[in-house]
């Protein structure tokens, strides 16, 4: 079976790297895949020659067909007793594999993705899985805004080759102190509120939220979970036609934090 990016000389991957690097790539498909990811991560899309785009399309469409995804609609709800948690699911996994109406991306103020190759942030995962069309879309949005993106807004783009239809890009607060301030808490709540409002305005049936600010930006996970849940509760309790909300925990520890925070809120 062919790998997700195609095998061998003459493959779309080989041709694409030859164009981008200006010579026949050495090594094999595994190295070429890493080089392609690094090349795209570190550059703006204006550097991609026009004849490279059809090859990118071929590679990403094959990849999207081959990588399994989880249907958000199939996820169990936390409760079924008329509470706000009837519209809430908790799922552990990679948010880029979720077939949802929208997913939330924890972005930076540049809003065009992370430029550090293989950095383990959700921004990198989302842009890599969506393909360079997402950076291109964010670049044109930011070219019009002519300013860094402030915290607690939501910018909607297509999902491109993600299983999700839309992506809600938001910039969370950076927590420098050992404990978040009131401003940090308000800013984090504002991120969830902005994303949930954008999901409602986009008429999506489901929205999956990653744990905004709890990685590189340093927000303590339990405190962040309580803020996220309070914002989601306010949203679900306040709008009758609210979409299904999925809290995405990336690790088993993150899932345990959410379960305990939910237990505390429902007690
Ligand atoms: N799926 C779901 N959750 C994930 C995934 C994934 N694929 N990958 C990471 N997480 P972070 P931040 C979780 O650092 O703190 C970027 O470089 C992760 O375990 O991605 O808001 C941006 O460009 C953590 O709990 O976002 C910004 O510069 C959570 O996602 C900066 O990081 C958020 O971690 C934003 O920092």
Structure description:
- It is a single chain.
- The mean pLDDT is 95.
- The protein has eight helices and eight strands; from the N terminus they run H-H-H-E-E-E-E-H-H-E-E-H-E-H-E-H.
- Helix content is 42%, strand content 13%.
- The strands form two sheets. A six-stranded mixed sheet has the order 2-8-7-4-6-5, sandwiched between helices. Strands 1-3 form a two-stranded parallel ribbon.
- It has helices at 12-21, 29-41, 53-66, 122-130, 132-145, 182-201, 221-238, 252-266; strands spanning 70-71, 88-92, 98-99, 102-107, 155-158, 166-171, 206-209, 244-249.
- It is an alpha/beta fold and 267 residues long.
- It has two domains: 12-66, no CATH class; 70-266, Leucine Aminopeptidase, subunit E, domain 1.
- It binds ligand AR6.
- Ligand AR6 binds at residues 94-96, 106-108, 114, 119, 121-123, 125, 172, 210-217, 248, 250, 254.
Can you summarize this structure?
The mean pLDDT is 95. The protein has helices at 12-21, 29-41, 53-66, 122-130, 132-145, 182-201, 221-238, 252-266, and strands spanning 70-71, 88-92, 98-99, 102-107, 155-158, 166-171, 206-209, 244-249. The longest helix is centred in the last third of the chain and has 20 residues, at 182-201.
């Amino acid at each position: 079976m062919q790998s997700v990016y195609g095998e061998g000389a003459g493959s779309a991957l080989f041709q694409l790297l030859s164009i981008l690097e200006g010579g026949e790539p050495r090594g094999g498909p595994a190295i070429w895949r890493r080089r392609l990811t690094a090349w795209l991560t570190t550059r703006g899309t204006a550097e991609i020659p026009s004849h490279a785009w059809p090859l990118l399309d071929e590679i990403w469409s094959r990849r999207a067909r081959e990588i399994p995804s989880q249907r958000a609609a199939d996820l169990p709800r936390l409760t079924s007793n008329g509470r706000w948690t009837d519209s809430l699911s908790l799922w552990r996994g990679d948010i880029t594999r979720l077939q949802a109406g929208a997913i939330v991306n924890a972005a930076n103020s540049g809003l065009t993705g992370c430029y550090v190759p293989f950095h383990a942030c959700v921004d990198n995962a989302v842009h890599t899985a969506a393909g360079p069309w997402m950076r291109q879309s964010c670049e044109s949005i930011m070219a019009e805004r002519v300013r860094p993106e402030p915290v607690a807004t939501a910018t909607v783009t297509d999902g491109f080759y993600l299983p999700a239809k839309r992506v809600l890009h938001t910039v969370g607060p950076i927590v420098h102190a050992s404990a978040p301030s009131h401003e940090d808490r308000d800013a984090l709540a504002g991120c969830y509120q902005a994303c949930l409002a954008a999901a409602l305005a986009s008429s999506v049936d489901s929205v999956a939220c990653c744990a905004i600010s709890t990685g590189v930006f340093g927000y303590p996970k339990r405190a962040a979970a309580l803020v996220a849940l309070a914002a989601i509760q306010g949203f679900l309790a306040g709008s009758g036609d609210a979409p299904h909300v999925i809290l995405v925990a990336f690790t088993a520890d993150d899932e345990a934090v959410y379960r305990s925070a939910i237990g505390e809120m429902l007690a």
